[in-house]
Amino acid sequence: MSITRKDVDHVAKLARLDLSENEKELFTGQLNAILKYAEQLNGLNTEGIAPTSHAMPLVNVMREDVVTPSLPIEKVMANAPEQEDGQFKVPAVLE
Prior knowledge:
Elements: H1 5-14, H2 21-38, H3 73-77, E1 83-84, E2 87-88
Antiparallel strand pairs: 1-2
């Protein structure tokens, strides 16, 4: 598979890029070089190798959910610019 000048024009149009003629030629060559490099993967023996979605095994990085006491309401509201009935008071966003 190779990238043609028409392909570069099409992608530039989709991306709303105004490329010069020199840039179109440059990108056509660069994209073809990338594809040629990626084609080397076709030569690898992948027999018996299970497909993976990640290069490294993923583990859950979340901590255990532990119940702890909350801060006292006085301490929570100490820096609130405005409060009402033990709750933060904020400007209305709906009319």
